[in-house]
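Practice set, problem 2.
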Amino acid sequence: MAEWIAAEKRGRNVRMWAMPEGAPVEDAMGTVVMVGGDGAPRRAVPCKAIPEGLVPGAGGGFLFPALEWEGQPSDGAEARIAGFAARDDRWDGVLCIVGESTVWAHISAGEVISFQRFLTARLAAAIDVSEMWDDIKLREAMADAMARPERLAAYVARAGDAGTLWGALLGAELAAAKPYWLGQQVVVIGEGRAAEALASGLAGQGVPVMRADDTDMVLEGMKAAVAAHGGVA
């Protein structure tokens, strides 16, 4: 039996791992610690990236407390932020966490200073855009949208291919997130082509960019939160 189970809820899907080994499992045979539950968020930002305690779940187990700032939920990014801080609590820069939404978070000395959330991937899903795009068209559209983000709706209206659509959406996001990445070190956390495209777009602007594995950061963050809680067994 696992010492405890790390779980992440995204929409209707739940992923689980036996901890502390981190092996994927399908059945919860132990105390569950969940990211993406319905517990009360931490609204006092700036705050420590690693929460000082977990929230008891209504049906048992524990919830990893989310973050909320200026009405924005952190949407699972809280565990990834904690995971990165657990690896380097002296780092100062920006994390770009790419998933169903994108969270840009300013991190300094193990604290979350601020964050901004974007629904770029959800917009792409709403207009049914494939991730099978042409890289050249994506880069061209991204550059156009970064230069004139106010014309995003027009770019989308005339786009006839996935590369142009994704490029317009991601370029507009990069333009809006410029206060976060300009003059900063950025770590992109996430899987899939959207994460790759954002990392490439940032590098094209001369931003120092690193990548971190999404699952590794989730599990590192959950282990750090359980340790700060004093364990759950």
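Problem 2, part (b): a different protein.
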Amino acid sequence: MKKTNTTFFISANPPANHDYDSLPLNNTDQWYLLVKNDHPLAQKDRVTLRDVMDQPLLLPENIDTTPLSGWLTPESDNLQIRGSFNLESTAAAMVDEGLGVAFYAGTSFDGPLTTVPLQPAVIGHPTLIWLKNRKLSQQAQKFLAYFQAQK
């Protein structure tokens, strides 16, 4: 099997590392609290930081690089952080198993889980990222040109 390297990835924020080039994408991601359908917070129209203070929380591993880090203010030192995840599917499985509630960026969620918008709203601006000074294949160049033409 031929070994391949990932050329592009999408991040919630531009890279802090100068070894990467980036291109902001036109879409946005809204952040939600992911809870079981029968959780008391599932009945709310929006959740605030105060609402989640006493909840067992599951946070993205890279929380410092997301817009969510600004929502979790300094007075949130008393949060009950129970774990972290690197994939939203992992967060969903953890919430489904009753390990806590998780922060989720994306759209609605099907199944036994629901998403509740955060108040104030947390909006992310996804960014396409690739390694600087790396020769891109023709396919990768076309891929990048497509997104550049959207700007």
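Answer key, part (b): The chain has four helices and nine strands. The longest helix spans residues 138-149.
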